[in-house]
């Protein structure tokens, strides 16, 4: 039997019972729907500090214990044994695929990588210094104008075509944005290459000479993509759900997610971390920098630190830090001054009372930018890389929501603090 909580209005004596709902793991949640009906009140929780916005079977986080599970599988195991497309398949379809299922999925993704030629012409309309996230978000939204066989959200086949298509085409769109910013010709996808190797080729190959794909770089990217693939109801995923809950086409919903991811408090943090490290310059300046972080008047944050859910080590940050060593060693760049600086910064911050008392630990983005840099990805593309990986999660959440026959439009309420009703004053009397 579920626990019941009695809520009473002290003035009127009216009361209601709220029932606790239990998930498979994690804290119970209170069904607060009777509050409005029985007591005429809403709840107030800015920033969703204590509100579950939905029920979901996809990803579980225990922020105190530093646990992250995709469909029940620990991210550490997936990072060691799986590959990004298998993880994407797991997130979307709910269970680990058989060999035949995975082959079919990989084949379908590979064969959807080209984009409509007219869509590529969009890039000509952007200035060369446009931020790639602006281009990617705009071009993803435009996909609804091209792919009409995948916009009927009530048709399961449409939903599946959309899912494969967006995962397949996002690297192509990202590479087109990058090539546009360089003024280089677009490089078409190659079906003989795996997902990340193909992406590296589209980014770095040029028509005039052969390009050798570095397997270390492809492997590192694949691992980063696994770690970024999903993170339950984070800001961008919640944005995808909210936009999608209106019945908007899925490309519009994913484009909204790309835009939400861009902010420095979310996916934009990986870019901001490297800006911050370069700004600090050397280990000698760490103390001065941390003094500014702790002085609230300065409005400076230690980027790549802190998380709404993790009040312990972000398990992804641990894996990425280990990967940094391996990637830099394999690429012969163990003398990376930024990596040295970030290690020292982390060491000092983790002993500092300010960060300890607030339970601020490195998050997924503290080290990811160092790896992206080492494999040649430019800083402005870091958040785009995150978007490519997170598309798997966005798609899984969108599918879960849209295939639920009880889907309703997401429509939060508010605490109104504006003026009470007042009469219009003609302009000559104001
Ligand atoms: N540097 C300095 N102080 C911080 C930091 C930080 N990175 N993060 C939190 N704090 C402090 C806040 O100032 C606040 O202190 P106070 O209690 O004295 O006022 C306290 O810790 C709690 O912080 P909030 O901002 O209330 O925490 P919230 O859960 O709202 O924010 C967030 C989480 C946005 C991730 C925040 O920690 C942050 O800005 N971090 C830096 C940006 C970053 O790395 N973002 C990536 C997150 S992971 C991701 O999206 C992929």
Question: How would you describe what is shown here?
Answer:
The chain is mainly alpha-helical. 49% of the residues lie in helices and 6% in strands. The protein contains 18 helices and six strands. The chain has helices at 33-39, 75-81, 84-93, 99-110, 117-120, 132-142, 156-182, 195-204, 215-228, 235-244, 250-261, 269-280, 286-294, 315-330, 337-351, 353-357, 365-374, 382-402, and strands spanning 4-8, 15-21, 29-31, 59-62, 67-70, 73-74. The strands form two sheets. Strands 1-2-3 form a three-stranded antiparallel β-sheet. It has a three-stranded antiparallel β-sheet with strand order 4-5-6. A hairpin with a 2-residue loop joins strand 5 and strand 6 (73-74). Helix 6 packs antiparallel against helix 7 (156-182) and helix 7 (156-182) packs antiparallel against helix 18. The chain is globular, with a radius of gyration of 24 Å. The chain starts with a strand and ends in a 28-residue tail after the last helix. The model has no long low-confidence stretch (mean pLDDT 94). Residues 47, 265-267, 269, 293, 301-308, 358, 360, 363-365 line the site of acetyl coenzyme *A.
């Amino acid at each position: 039997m579920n626990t019941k909580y009695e809520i009473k209005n002290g003035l009127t004596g009216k009361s209601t019972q709220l029932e606790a709902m239990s998930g498979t793991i994690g804290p119970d949640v209170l069904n607060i729907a009777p509050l409005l009906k029985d007591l005429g009140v809403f709840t107030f929780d800015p920033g969703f500090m204590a509100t579950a916005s939905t029920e979901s079977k996809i990803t579980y986080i225990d922020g105190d214990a530093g646990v992250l599970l995709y469909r029940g599988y620990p991210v550490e195991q997936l990072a060691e044994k799986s590959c990004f497309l298998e993880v994407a398949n797991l997130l979307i379809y709910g269970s680990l695929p058989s060999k035949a299922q995975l082959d079919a999925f990989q084949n379908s993704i590979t064969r959807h990588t080209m984009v409509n030629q007219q869509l590529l012409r969009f890039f000509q309309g952007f200035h060369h210094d446009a931020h790639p996230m602006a281009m990617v978000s705009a071009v993803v939204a435009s996909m609804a104008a091209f792919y009409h066989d995948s916009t009927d959200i009530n048709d399961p086949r449409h939903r599946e075509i959309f899912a494969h298509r967006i995962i397949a085409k996002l690297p192509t769109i990202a590479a087109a944005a990058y090539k546009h910013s360089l003024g280089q010709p677009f490089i078409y996808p190659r079906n003989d290459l795996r997902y990340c190797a193909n992406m590296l080729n589209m980014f770095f190959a040029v028509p005039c000479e052969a390009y050798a794909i570095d397997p270390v770089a492809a492997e590192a990217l694949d691992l980063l993509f696994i770690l970024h693939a999903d993170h339950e109801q984070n800001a961008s995923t919640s944005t995808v759900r909210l936009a999608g809950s209106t019945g908007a086409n899925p490309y519009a919903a994913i484009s909204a997610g790309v835009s939400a991811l861009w902010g420095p408090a979310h996916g934009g943090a990986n870019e901001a971390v490297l800006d911050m490290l370069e700004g600090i310059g050397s280990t000698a300046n760490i103390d001065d920098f941390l003094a500014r972080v702790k002085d609230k008047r300065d409005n400076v944050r230690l980027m790549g630190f802190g998380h709404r859910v993790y009040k312990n080590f972000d398990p992804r940050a641990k894996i990425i830090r280990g990967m940094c060593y391996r990637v830099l060693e394999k690429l012969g760049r163990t003398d990376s001054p930024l990596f040295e600086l970030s290690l020292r910064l982390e060491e000092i911050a983790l002993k500092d009372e300010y960060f300890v008392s607030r339970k601020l630990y490195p998050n997924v983005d503290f080290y990811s930018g160092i790896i992206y840099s080492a494999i040649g990805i430019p800083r402005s593309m870091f958040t785009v890389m995150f978007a490519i990986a997170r598309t798997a999660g966005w798609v899984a959440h969108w599918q879960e929501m849209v295939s639920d026959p009880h889907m309703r439009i997401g429509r939060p309420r508010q605490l109104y603090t504006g003026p009470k009703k007042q009469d219009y004053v003609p302009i000559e009397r104001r």
